[in-house]
């Protein structure tokens, strides 16, 4: 069982887990546009060079991966084992489009345009949150409303930028990242071979355009990394969860689902990229609060399911809120018309 008395008496829970490449020593870190891998150096007090560090997985990426742990496959629907946990589904229709998305996969959850552009749903949220652009926000009503329609908003954060003056914003309560310590580059390379046109002398005509060299041999360089330690870090802001002012069982549900997400992420195959497959080394270490132990995944799932049933009266009925969103695809003609109008 989760030791709630110990957990709820701390301001935040800090977890860490040692990882290592599943084979060999090299791994491929996350990369960022224009800067590549995020290397940095620790400061040193004695004048020597500090330890070289590397961001293996960013907080943004880990947040996405934690959210995915409770999806049915890649989503947009919820894992059937957690049936009853509320979320919203948007069915996009029109112009031959028959797509479905949900607040579990949208970037800002209930703040997605696919929900906030639905007038009836927005009016319902506004009324239940008692939101007004004039005066102060009653945050307890806001938190209760999010818990009612999608508790994940209170775990992973939400930003209703399209509602009024954009003041309704909740930061992540659960964050994580992966760092590597004492790193060095492992440089290698390869070549994309073209058995038909190694020198790039063949020209190909497509849609009236002639292209050459696209089937030639292309050599390339590759940079991977080695490290003495790779550590995944997680931070559950218990004080933030307590500040929501929800019922005891609702507060416990947020904590249980958060721990389930961390456990499922670390228990997965941890294939972060093609050349970055990691293994959990010695389980999860709790550095704060001292004496707390993260239960196994099966136990966390049972606890989450128990609390979902217990919180049913605080959820939307039905638990899955559906919205119908009429959409259409923008054609090149539409884009040209818009550009010409803007020039005028």
Question: What's the helix and strand layout?
Answer:
Elements: H1 4-7, E1 13-21, E2 31-32, E3 36-41, E4 52-57, H2 59-68, E5 87-94, E6 97-102, H3 113-116, H4 119-129, H5 139-149, H6 152-156, E7 158-159, E8 169-170, E9 174-192, E10 203-206, E11 209-212, E12 218-236, H7 238-243, H8 248-267, E13 271-273, E14 276-288, H9 297-310, E15 320-326, H10 332-343
Parallel strand pairs: 5-15
Antiparallel strand pairs: 1-12, 1-14, 2-3, 3-4, 4-9, 5-6, 7-8, 9-12, 10-11, 13-14
Helix pairs in contact: 8-9
What's this model, at a glance?
This protein has 344 residues and is an alpha+beta fold. The protein has helices spanning 4-7, 59-68, 113-116, 119-129, 139-149, 152-156, 238-243, 248-267, 297-310, 332-343; strands at 13-21, 31-32, 36-41, 52-57, 87-94, 97-102, 158-159, 169-170, 174-192, 203-206, 209-212, 218-236, 271-273, 276-288, 320-326.
Considering the chains and any ligands shown, give keywords for the structure:
344 residues, alpha+beta, eight-stranded antiparallel β-sheet, three-stranded mixed β-sheet, 10 helices, globular
């Amino acid at each position: 069982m989760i030791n709630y008395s110990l957990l709820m008496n701390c301001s935040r829970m800090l977890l860490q887990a040692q990882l290592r490449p599943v084979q060999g020593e090299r791994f491929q870190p996350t990369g960022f546009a224009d800067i590549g891998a995020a290397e940095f150096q620790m400061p040193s007090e004695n004048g020597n060079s500090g330890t070289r560090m590397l961001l293996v997985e960013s907080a943004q990426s880990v947040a996405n991966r934690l959210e995915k742990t409770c999806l049915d496959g890649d989503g947009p629907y919820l894992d059937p084992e957690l049936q009853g946990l509320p979320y919203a589904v948007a069915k996009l229709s029109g112009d031959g489009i028959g797509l479905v998305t949900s607040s579990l996969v949208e970037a800002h959850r209930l703040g997605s345009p696919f929900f906030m552009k639905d007038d009836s749903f927005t009016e319902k949220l506004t009324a239940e949150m008692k939101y007004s652009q004039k005066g102060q926000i009653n945050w307890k009503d806001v938190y209760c409303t999010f818990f009612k329609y999608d508790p994940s908003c209170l775990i992973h954060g939400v930003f209703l930028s399209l509602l009024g003056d954009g003041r309704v914003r909740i930061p992540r309560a659960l964050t994580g990242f992966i760092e590597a310590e004492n790193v060095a580059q492992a440089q290698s390379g390869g070549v994309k071979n073209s058995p038909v046109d190694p020198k790039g002398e063949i020209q190909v005509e497509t849609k009236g355009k002639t292209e050459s060299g696209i089937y030639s041999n292309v050599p390339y360089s590759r940079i991977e990394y080695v490290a003495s330690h790779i550590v995944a870090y997680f931070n559950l802001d218990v004080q933030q969860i307590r500040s929501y002012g929800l019922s005891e069982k609702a507060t416990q549900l947020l904590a249980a689902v958060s721990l389930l997400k961390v456990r499922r992420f670390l228990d997965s195959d941890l294939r972060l990229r093609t050349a970055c497959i990691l293994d959990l080394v010695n389980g999860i270490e709790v550095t704060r609060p001292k004496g707390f132990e993260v239960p196994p995944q099966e136990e966390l799932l049972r606890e989450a399911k128990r609390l979902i049933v217990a919180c049913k009266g605080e959820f939307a009925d039905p638990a899955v809120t559906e919205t119908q969103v009429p959409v259409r695809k923008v054609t090149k003609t539409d884009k040209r018309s818009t550009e010409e109008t803007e020039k005028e």
